[in-house]
């Protein structure tokens, strides 16, 4: 996508990241955790303009869960309460063993989309989510088997290299790099999520968003995700650059400085309003499916 | 083995919950869900090597 897409008024896809796995109600009591709470949050986010909901699962006490059974409860609750929203499951998990990472892909039905981390991510003093190429390839293969479109998580510029390396070498993107192995090819259009924040994510500054966008090959769709106070400015910039955006309490607990967000829907509604004001209509789930080739 | 500083509580001075949640008595705060993985030593994590709060408390 390009600035021309902005000028042409291409619809912007809004993703709502409802809960995540890092913080909980101790940080913002409005963050949904139980399947019912996540389902209600998904429905409200859809009404506010989200066409994708990015899901994690929690235990009843708010702690992280990776089991297929718990993801099933969450996704069932979401599907029961929403009209047409696209379900995207996380496969991330700092500190979690590899054999748990694929469990969110195994619900019935499978999620239409899932996140796919492109490499290591540091958190806290001692935790690294390794995301070796072997794990990435295994998760991607299972996504392909189940018809799940990956959202490539580009935590930094090096992960853009990793993303380019698995793009189809037979395509028209002039990448100069072959696919790493048979079966690595991505269905068109590749969908990359550019992540900005602390740790080993890209330094959250407009110039770095511009730099990553300039390095994207033709024919990909990109999304912008930025943590905390960077969510509003960088997602707005993403809209201007022809990208799609993700907002929600997983990434940002505040509506403005010192004021906790009331809900995921509140953050989605603000972004939908900004997109409309800037001349880009908010994509319906059907339009999002068309754009992403689902 | 769970961290000796882990306690499950329903409330403190600032929060009240329907379900007991992980509370770190080393820092006197409810902890984030991902940190609770370390408190409980889930997923091959170990509070003795992976939690700075534990190591700081033990060094005092």
UniProtKB/TrEMBL annotation, chain A:
Keywords: Metal-binding, Transferase, Zinc. Its cofactor is Zn(2+). It holds the Pfam family BKACE. InterPro entries: Aldolase_TIM, BKACE. Transmembrane segments: none annotated. GO terms for molecular function: 3-keto-5-aminohexanoate cleavage activity; metal ion binding. PANTHER family: 3-KETO-5-AMINOHEXANOATE CLEAVAGE ENZYME (PTHR37418:SF2), 3-KETO-5-AMINOHEXANOATE CLEAVAGE ENZYME-RELATED (PTHR37418). This is 3-keto-5-aminohexanoate cleavage enzyme.
TrEMBL record, chain B:
It comes from the Archaea. This is Uncharacterized protein.
């Amino acid at each position: 996508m390009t600035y021309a897409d902005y000028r042409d008024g291409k619809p912007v896809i809004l993703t709502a990241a409802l809960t995540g796995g890092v913080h909980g109600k101790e940080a913002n009591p409005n963050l949904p955790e139980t399947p019912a709470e996540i389902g209600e949050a998904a429905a409200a986010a859809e009404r506010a303009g989200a066409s994708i909901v990015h899901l994690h699962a929690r235990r009843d006490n708010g702690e992280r869960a990776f089991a297929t059974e718990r993801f099933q409860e969450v996704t069932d609750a979401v599907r029961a309460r929403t009209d047409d929203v696209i379900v995207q499951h996380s496969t991330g998990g700092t500190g979690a063993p590899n054999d748990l990472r694929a469990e969110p892909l195994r619900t019935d039905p499978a999620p239409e989309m899932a996140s796919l981390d492109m490499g290591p991510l540091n958190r806290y003093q001692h935790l690294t989510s390794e995301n070796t190429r072997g794990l990435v390839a295994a998760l991607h293969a299972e996504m392909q088997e189940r018809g799940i479109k990956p959202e490539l998580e580009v935590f930094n510029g090096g992960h853009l290299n990793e993303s380019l390396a698995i793009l189809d070498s037979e395509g028209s993107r002039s990448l100069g790099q072959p696919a790493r192995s048979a079966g690595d090819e991505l269905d068109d259009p590749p969908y990359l999520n550019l992540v900005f924040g602390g740790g080993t994510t890209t330094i959250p500054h407009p110039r770095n968003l511009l730099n990553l966008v300039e390095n994207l090959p033709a024919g990909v769709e990109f999304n912008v995700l930025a943590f905390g106070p960077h969510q509003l400015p960088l997602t707005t910039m993403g809209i201007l650059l022809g990208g799609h955006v993700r907002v929600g309490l997983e990434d940002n607990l505040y509506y403005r400085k010192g004021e906790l967000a009331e809900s995921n829907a509140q953050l989605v509604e603000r972004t939908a309003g900004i997109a409309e004001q800037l001349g880009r209509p908010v994509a319906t789930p059907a339009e999002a499916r068309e754009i992403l080739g689902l | 083995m769970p961290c000796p500083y882990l306690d499950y509580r329903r409330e403190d001075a600032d929060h009240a919950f329907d379900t007991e949640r992980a509370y770190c008595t080393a820092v006197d705060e409810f902890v984030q869900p991902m940190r609770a993985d370390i408190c409980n030593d889930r997923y091959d994590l170990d509070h003795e090597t992976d939690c700075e709060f534990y190591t700081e408390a033990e060094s005092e």
